[in-house]
Each structure stands twice: as structure tokens, then as C-alpha cells.
Amino acid sequence: MTKNTIYIVDVTNRDGVQTSRLGLAKLQKTMVNIYLDEMGVTQSEFGFPTTNHEINYLNANLELAARGAIKTTKLSGWMRGIESDVLESFKNVPALKIVNLSVSTSDQMIQGKYGGKKTRADIIDSTVKAVKAAYKCGAEIVGVNAEDASRTEQEQLVEFALAVKKAGAKRFRYCDTLGFDSPDVAYTRMKDLAVRTGMDLEVHFHNDLGMAVANSVRGAQGAIDGGVDAYINTAVNGMGERAGNADLACCVLAILKSSGFAGKYRLDPNIKISKIWQLAKYTSYAFGLPIPINYPAVGGNAFAHESGIHADGALKDRRNYELYDYEELGRGEPEIVETGRMITTGEYGGIKGFRDVYNRISIEFKDDEEARNILELARYANVHTQFPLTESELKFIYHHPDLAAKIMTVIPFYKPSENLKSASNSAAKKPFTKSFPSPLNSPACRAGIRNDLDT
């Protein structure tokens, strides 16, 4: 890495998928990684190695990288900053090379989460052990995350960062977990951390006050001005817990186009902004969440003009009312799913319709055996995502059928204790239909608990 450069670490597949009431299937997470790679994003925090249902997906994506199907984007795992999590992570996903270890550092969280059972010294000690364990297990880059850093005293953050740096940590992540900071505070704290620790810094800002992008780019400025590389944590379309994370497109465009950045700070040269549009559109489709019409860069009205003065000015010279060109973003209006007459393939699709679908994306099968194998995978993918398959998903399944099968295979964790067996046997003797009142007459329905389905 070159010093004084701003890189992107996208966390859509780790923090973005924690968006309440939404999520991505493992195939969709894989496609996000592939789209991020096509855009040239430095790193994707692609999931949780301690979570059983993630294991096949994580291993398969690392195999994709080994095959060269993911070339630029490095895949990193997230885990708690404790030795047992590290050991379990590498047992589950042995090929991990980049990890981020997370631990809460504020007084609020030490008391509110740990109940005062851990001291600050305990937290530093356990995190240091976790860092050393990660390197023993084969990690090449270990980053340490300070959760709720924005509500942690600066001196305590510096002490923590220096301790994990001594243990071998390469990066320190400042997490504004509650979206608490303002841009000036973000700049000042990042610059001070950079100067006093000499560590490359990751900035992770949430959008609870609507300042995630501003804080991220300003924090990155502080890190660069302090003499280290900056890594901005982003999520596609700003997905994430509560009000979400810093939006990928907005952060990239702010660095490239805003008066405070343009020509002054260096963005990772691998970034291709021409891929922003397709990444945003696919992610929107996969989450089942439309992009707001007035969203910057990728919203439906981002390049729309109605008022007379604006329309006249834009027609004379687009630079009058457009800061950047829609062509730069690779922007068009492709339909993810065709409209009009169409033949689709899904969980009940047949071989003739299936062949037609693949013919339209210029893929011909060598023989009937190959066609039927890919058809079964496509059927399963439809069950897996519950959405019509996109062209990119169909192509992925065709080119990597073995890994597609692995990615879509989730084995539930179930080890019944005697109590569970007893409960199961007891439940089997009771007819379930008598256990549930009519939905319309249920207390939950009358209380309005299900109203979330209408929002």
C-alpha cells in the first residue's frame, strides 16, 4: 500500500446484512463480493467465521478468490476480540488471511454490556491475546476495532491502539457505533490517533444523525494529514443497523468530486466509478429495497431537472446543474428482470424454458447432462433467494457450479439435549392446529403487533 492513500473497506456483507428485517442470501452476498471486485474495492468484510450458517459461503468465496474469480478485493472476516473466537474462526475457515477483531471500549459499553465484570486492562489483555492467536493461525493482516470509539476518551483509545500495535495489529478501526460524532471531531480525533500511534486507520461511521458520509471523508482526511493510510468503511446504498452506514458511492464521489478533496487526497487508483451503478442496482434488487428517488448518484432523480431555470440551464450545458456525468457511473436503465413477454427459470422451471433463458445470455450447454445439472442449481438458487435470478447470478452458477452448490448449502446446527428431546416428544403429542388461534382474532393481531408487515 502507498502511504497517504484512501482505501475502501466495504462492510455490506457484514454490517449491511444486519439491517433489521432485511438480509441477503449467500448467493446474493457472493454476487456483491464479485461486483465489489469489479469496482476495484480494496476489501470486503464478507461475514462471520464463527457463525455456522456462514461457513460454506465463506470458504467457497475464498476458493473463488484462489481461482482468480475475485482478483482485487480482499476478503476479511469479523469476530470478537477474544482468543476463543479467533481459534473457532480459523477452525471453520482455515484460509482466512485478513481479520478484524472487535471489542467495546467506552465506559458506557464496559458497564452496560459487560456489567462491570471486565476492566479496561482486561479488555486490552484479551485483545492482545486474540491478535497474537490470529497470527499463529495464519492471518496476514489483523485489524482491531474499537466499538463505540466515539464515546471513548482519546487517551484510552491511544493506550488501546498502542497495545494492539505492539502485539502486531496493522490497522486500528475507529467505530462511531451510534453516529455520535460531528465531522470536525472526526477529523481531529483521527489526526491525533494517526500522529500518536503511526497505525493505518479505518473509519467506521453510522448514520444516526445523517452525518456518516461527512464523518467518514473528514475522518479519512484527518488520518491522511496525520501521515497514515485511511480505510473508509462503507456499505452499498448505506445499508446497515438502524439508520445505516456510510454509503459507498457517496464516499467515493465526495473524495473525487468535492471541493475539499478533489486533487488534494488520493483515492485507491483501483476504484472504477463506472461500476457504481450496477453495484447499487444489484444490491437494491437483492435486498428488495428500492433506492430512494432523490438518492445521490444512483437515485431516479439524481440527474432529473424539472424547473424551467434548471432544465434550460442543463440543456444548454449540463455542467450548469450537474456536478458529474451519469455516464461516469456506468449509469443506464437496465431491467434486472425483463418486462413484457418473458421466459424465466425458477424452482419449478423446465429444461426447454431453461435453455431459452441461457441462450439469451449467450451460453449454450455442451449436452443434456450439463443442462440438467445447471437447471437443478438454478432451481435451488431460486428457492435460496426467493427472487427471479439475474443474468449475473445465472452466469455465476454456470461458470462455478461446484462453488454455487457449496454457497447455497446450509446445514442447520442442531445437537439436541435431553431437555430438547423431551420437549419434542411432548410437543408431538399435541396437535399444532389447536395451539394457534385464528390470525385475525389473535391478541397479537388485535394489538397491532403485525403492523410491521404493512410498512
Feature tags:
455 residues, alpha/beta, TIM Barrel, 8-stranded parallel β-barrel, disordered C terminus
Describe the fold and architecture.
There is one protein chain. The chain has 17 helices and nine strands. It is of the alpha/beta class and 455 residues long. Among the domains are: 5-287, Aldolase class I (TIM Barrel), CATH 3.20.20.70; 418-450, no CATH class. It has an eight-stranded parallel barrel, surrounded by eight helices. Helix 1 (26-39) runs antiparallel to helix 10 (276-287) and helix 3 runs parallel beside helix 5 (120-137). The protein is globular. Residues 339-343 and 439-455 have low confidence and may be disordered.
Short structural summary:
With 455 residues, this protein is α/β, with parallel strands linked by helices. Among the domains are: 5-287, TIM Barrel; 418-450, no CATH class. Helix content is 42%, strand content 11%.
